[in-house]
Amino acid sequence: MSTLVKKELYDSVSFETAKLVTTRYSTSFSIGIRLLDPSIRDAVYGIYGFVRLADEIVDTFHSIDQEKALDQFEEDTWKAIQEKISLNPVLHAFQLVVHSYNIDRSYIEAFLASMKMDLRDIHYNDELLRKYIYGSAEVVGLMCLQVYCHDNIALYKELIHPARQLGSAFQKVNFLRDLRADIRELGRSYFPGVDKNTFNDSKRKALIADIEQEFAEGLRGIRHLPNNCRLGVYTAYVYYSALLKKLANSSAETILNSRVRVSNGHKFLLFVTAYIRNKTGFTSGT
Question: What is the mean pLDDT of the chain?
């Protein structure tokens, strides 16, 4: 086996590893990725695999020195990008994406900065929340947008704002869905002024109204996405919109004491609906 073939094999194994990490940790996102054109699917797995590893360091690995682990992960990330190889298959896949699609370095820096914020005891105000969401969610969408648009720089620039709005909406839905776990298990709340004593239906409605506005901006951008990715992104949008609707129909007490979910059967119907609406140019329904 030639050196070139061995390298291509390692690249392939690395993307398969990133795919495994993505699918095992996020069923909904992995379904959306499977609906992308095969030519860009591996690149998006590479991005989400990288994101998932960092997220697990700060949210799950409580038995180790998380700050030290995240610092090492950051160092390994930049080393992989600089040397164009890593013995960590997920980081190797990610650096391939970074170089193939000219991923903006500032996006990676912002993401890692937000992950570090999760290791600090922060009382979030509006400014800190915007900073955190930009780094933890919006830049992930922007990295994917660089993949989707690739050579079409004009379209990429046109879609930056709606992509950021969509990423922010997704993240805020996650925050609302995970409010119980964040407050009771991790001792944090991302929404300013929201804790187990102050969260009520009035605040729930205000948060949902804000998210709905961001979703509306995001949908306008989805309509202009290239064909290679529109169905996959729209499917994620439809799923998160349905989750937001369930949260809107749940009381503040329910959200604080349980994790609101969309059933697998409902998910299947949503994906079929997304396929049909995408085919008809979103002319029916949301």
Answer: 92
